[in-house]
Amino acid sequence: MLGERQAHRRTPGEVVAALLARPDEIMLEVGAGGELLVARLRAVIAGLLLLLPLSNALGGGSIDETLIGLAGVVFINLFAQTWLVLARRRRRFLWLPFATAAFDVTATSLILLTLANHHLPAGLNSVVVWCGYVLAILLTALRNDGRTTLFAGGLAVLQYSVIVAVLLLGAESPERLISSDYGTPTVGNQVQRLILLAIVTVITAMVVYRLQRLVEMSGTDGLTGLPNRTWLVHRMPHLVDAVEHEGGSLTLALLNMDHFRRINDEIGHRAGDRALRHVVGTITRITDEREWLVRLRGEEFVMVLRKPVGTAWERVDALRRLVSAAPFEPERGADPVHLTFSAGIVGYPNDGHDLSALLRNADRRLQTAKREGRDRVVARET
User: Fold this and answer.
1) Mean pLDDT, contiguous 10-residue spans, the chain (382 residues)
2) Gap between the Cα atoms of 368 and 136, Å rounded
3) Which stretches within the chain are classed as H helix?
4) Neighbouring C-beta atoms of residue 48, cutoff 10 Å
5) Are the C-beta atoms of 262 and 378 separated by less than 8 Å?
6) Rounded Cα–Cα distance for residues 137 and 308 (Å)
7) Is 198 in the same domain as 236?
8) Same domain, 206 and 243
9) Is residue 223 part of a domain?
């Protein structure tokens, strides 16, 4: 509910900024699945488009228009299969959503220009082909990336504006714009189409924004605002890949508040929740971009650090001392509550090759810290 209220209070500028921001790891993973779904849908739609030239021929359309349409859909089918192959390699090509969105929009523009070259009104008033822009924009909703939606919508408006300007202004005579099959294109009805494309873009962007907020809530702890276990599960494989391909170190620290159940009993659960937020605020105020604090459950946290075990131990121990030196005041005038945590530290790959193994070994070292008196950080077995 907290996340929902915050989302409702966002200003239009904050909504646009959220749409333009790079999605988090969960959203990128969802978007990769969406890109594959889009690629499969594109392949199916491309196959169905092969029926259009046939229906045009059977409906009495000209041979030239039928051949143009056939060439266009064959071109689309070839690229649709190419995009499908690339999309199966999930998140390998970060540029793929933008490239495929640009392809969908540009393919529509090229077909309209080809039709206009044969019969000018067809390029401006072909509703069936023009709907390709709408489909290209709507499909971006499945990618869950606002940047792709705004990119596709902006590109569609830009390309169609150029087409309208070139064809209407370049018409040799008004008679060339008259068509018994397609009607006469006017500046008014073309502007209406551009407005419709802008409206479709805005609606699709709002759908994406809503989906982003829902996914964000699924990967965010409602009490502290920290990433949660879901986020960690999606993030870890990419951190491991980064270490494997780029080098560097990866360390996990499993943190657990000392005697926190007793604190809850003494000051109450609501004050206990505030105490957790106090600890989180104390730690996150000094974390850097290569450190992530994650809430697993209750009073248990994981800190992910792109540092060697030794350096990570020094960092976590410094945080332990910082938390210990910042007592929590349940309410004004009340006696401050002294808070401490214990932690167990493990490093990839020496202490485990996956998240499950790393957490299991970190918990073993955490229990050692508890047995040895709590309020300490353990980085090796004793």
Assistant:
1) 46 80 71 82 84 75 73 84 84 81 92 85 86 93 89 97 87 69 82 96 93 78 89 86 88 95 85 93 91 94 95 96 92 84 96 93 96 94 66
2) 57
3) 2-8, 12-20, 25-49, 51-58, 63-87, 96-118, 120-125, 127-139, 146-170, 187-218, 229-246, 260-267, 269-284, 309-324, 355-371
4) 10
5) no
6) 45
7) no
8) no
9) no
Structure confidence at residue 120 (pLDDT): 82
| Same-domain pairing of 174 and 290 | no
Measured distance CA(148)–CA(154) in Å, rounded:
10
Shared domain check, 190 and 48: yes
Half-sphere exposure of 265 (CA within 13 A, CB side): 4
**What is the spatial distance between Cα 96 and Cα 151, in angstroms, rounded to a whole number?**
13
Q: Which residues are within 8 A (CB) of 131 and not within 5 positions of it... i.e. 6 or more apart? A: none
Residues 192 and 53 in one domain: yes
Does residue 205 sit in the same domain as residue 76? yes
Q: Name the residue range of residue 174's domain.
A: 2-218
Identify the pLDDT of residue 90.
65
Alpha carbon 375 to its chain centroid, in Å, reads 38
331 falls within a domain: yes
- Domain-located, residue 60: yes
Is residue 8 situated within a structural domain?
Answer: yes
Q: Mapping DSSP to helix (H, G, I), strand (E, B) and coil, where does residue 91 land?
A: coil
Task: Tell whether 6 and 151 lie within a shared domain.
Answer: yes
